[in-house]
Amino acid sequence: MSGGKAPSAAYQAIHAVVRRIPPGSVASYGQVARLAGLTNAARQVGYALHALPTGTTVPWHRVVNARGAISLRDHQALTQRMLLMREEIRFDARGRVDLARQGWQPGQTRPDRKRKPA
């Protein structure tokens, strides 16, 4: 955080939700906002994640846009994609994640997604 200021209550709520997204799953900015109790605040989620310090333990990379695409640009987008691929998140030819398959559903157990032999 810049200036050493503590994050706002809204940012803290956003960070708490993002920490709950398990490896191998993603959530949309809007979904995170709703779960944090914020109305129409998808952009605020983006701002909260952008404000995280380098080396944070908040898994910011597990948040994508409503189409399942990475919204970051340049090297940040490549970093996010690499981190997601390490968690076995798959992208289609358009660079999107299938939210129906890999989207986080709080409270639901996910079947094991081990790789199938090629």
Range of strand content: under 5%
Distance between the termini: 44 Å
- Main β sheet profile: 2 strands, parallel
User: What structural class results from the helix and strand content?
Assistant: mainly alpha
| CATH domain class | Mainly Alpha
Low-pLDDT segments, ≥5 res:
114-118
CATH fold title: Arc Repressor Mutant, subunit A
- Overall outline: globular
Q: What Rg, in angstroms, do the CA atoms define? A: 14 Å
> How many discrete structural domains?
1
- Give the second-level CATH assignment, the architecture: Orthogonal Bundle
Question: What count of helical segments does DSSP give?
Answer: 5
- Strands in their spatial order, largest beta sheet: 1-2
Order of helices and strands: HEHHEHH
Helix fraction?
25-40%
The named CATH superfamily = Winged helix-like DNA-binding domain superfamily/Winged helix DNA-binding domain
Mean pLDDT: 89
Note down, in words, how this protein is organized.
This protein is mainly alpha-helical. The protein has a single domain, classed as Winged helix-like DNA-binding domain superfamily/Winged helix DNA-binding domain (Arc Repressor Mutant, subunit A, Orthogonal Bundle), CATH 1.10.10. The chain is 38% helix and 3% strand. The chain contains five helices and two strands; from the N terminus they run αβααβαα. It has a two-stranded parallel sheet with strand order 1-2. Helix 1 packs across helix 3 and helix 2 packs across helix 3. The chain starts with 8 loop residues before the first helix and ends in a 16-residue tail after the last helix. The C terminus is likely disordered.
